[in-house]
Design a protein that fits this description.
Elements: H1 28-35, H2 47-50, H3 55-81, H4 85-90, H5 103-118, H6 122-133, H7 148-170
Region (Disordered): 76-101, 159-187
């Protein structure tokens, strides 16, 4: 079939004719040799457990597995947010260290604190930042519990600075100057 100069007109059901031919299917004798090398190691970890279960039992198994994973994730989040240092240190992957962050991380902390505290809903903003950057960028490890003391001091000082700035900008509540009104009223 020579298609070098003319366009190819193909019906959507005949497109399979343009595909490369498939590899030949091995005979049963060859399949028997490769089947001996296949075992449970090639399958997902759950396959051995659910092999003999019925459809309803498999659904229950997967539901229970999802529930356990969600519970473990919840416990990890609660440990990371725990205010008690001994409770956080028990599950803290950084071992409760008092290490100081680099200057670049301190700048990220300051900008993040300003962003979080100036948001209309600071908790929601913090969770959004954790979801967007928490695991992807190591500079945001302070949101997961690393450098906890430094993060708390930066957040407190930023909160104080924002409160002072807000009080200063309020001034007289929007009243600036009445000006001279003696010349306007001449009774």
């Amino acid at each position: 079939m020579d298609t070098s100069g003319s366009p190819v007109w193909v019906d959507r059901h005949d497109i399979r004719l343009l595909l490369e031919p498939m590899a030949p299917i091995p005979s049963t004798s060859e399949a028997g040799k490769t089947a001996a090398n296949v075992g449970w190691d090639d399958l997902p970890a759950d396959a051995a457990e659910v092999f003999l279960l019925g459809a309803e039992a498999i659904e229950d198994f997967h539901r229970e597995k999802r529930r356990r994973m969600n519970e473990e994730a919840r416990e990890a989040r609660l440990r990371a947010m725990s205010p008690e240092p001994e409770a956080a240190a028990a599950g803290d992957e950084w071992g409760g260290s008092d290490e100081e962050p680099d200057e670049s991380v301190v700048l990220v902390m300051q900008k993040t604190a300003r962003m979080i505290l100036s948001a209309p809903n600071p908790t929601q903003m913090e969770m959004k930042i954790v979801m967007d950057f928490g695991k992807k960028q190591p500079a945001f490890a302070f949101l997961g519990g690393r450098w906890r003391r430094r993060w708390e001091t930066i957040r407190a000082s930023t909160n104080e600075a924002l409160q002072k700035e807000k009080a200063r900008s309020t001034g007289l509540g929007g009243l600036a100057d009445y000006g001279d009104t003696d010349g306007e009223e001449s009774d």
